[in-house]
Write a structure and sequence with these properties.
This protein has 188 residues and is mostly helical. The chain is 57% helix and 0% strand. Helix 2 packs antiparallel against helix 3, helix 2 packs parallel to helix 10 and helix 7 runs antiparallel to helix 8.
């Protein structure tokens, strides 16, 4: 890692995880395998910020714990990349448990308490809503096609207006925004 840390992927130690490494990596991992409109790739860091904004808008009662979990929901991708779900299944090993082990180390590092079933479902729902808007605004999906994969999200008009105009930003901008959001939400 650029921080100088060495992370053992098979047995991740929370002390080897730094938010700067996560932000740097996620800002350089392209969602949709880079197949998006715009001058820049749409990064996992930018996606994570959008998921956090959706969670905050739809569940305003959530605490910084749930919002940090939303921000870091795809954090393992800073070292393992962004693989589409069907490919994860096709790999043939228990990829999800590997990914979950790394996510648990990340949550431990930043003292994110265990999520309720409802909070975990809310983050997953926000992730799916973000994917719908990314698919239709950036990745060339028709609405009907996106609805088959992600459903038809019903959102407050102010949130729909924000998501309707998604624009990829540079890696350095996505990284800076991710770090700023983490600082805003982090109790440390």
């Amino acid at each position: 890692m650029l921080s100088g840390r060495r992370l053992d992927l098979l047995s991740p130690d929370p002390k080897d995880i730094e938010i700067e490494d996560i932000a740097h990596g996620l800002a350089r991992v392209a969602r949709w395998n880079g197949q998006t409109k715009g001058d820049y790739a749409f990064s996992v860091a930018q996606h994570s910020l959008i998921v956090t904004d959706i969670v905050n808008a739809l569940w305003p009662e959530f605490t910084s714990n749930e919002l940090l979990a939303a921000l870091l929901h795809d954090a393992p991708e800073y070292v393992i990349g962004d693989l589409i779900s069907p490919f994860k299944t096709a790999i043939g090993l228990d990829y999800k448990s590997f990914e979950l082990k790394l996510l648990q180390a990340i949550y431990c590092r930043f003292k994110i308490r265990e999520l309720s079933v409802g909070a975990a479902a809310a983050i997953k729902q926000a992730d799916t809503i973000a994917a719908y808007y990314e698919a239709t605004r950036l990745a060339g999906f028709e609405r009907a096609e996106a609805e088959l994969f992600f459903g038809d999200p019903e959102l407050p008009s102010e949130l729909h207006s924000v998501l309707a105009v998604l624009q990829p930003v540079s890696a350095s901008d996505a990284q800076a925004r991710f770090i700023a959001k983490f600082a805003d939400l982090s109790p440390h």
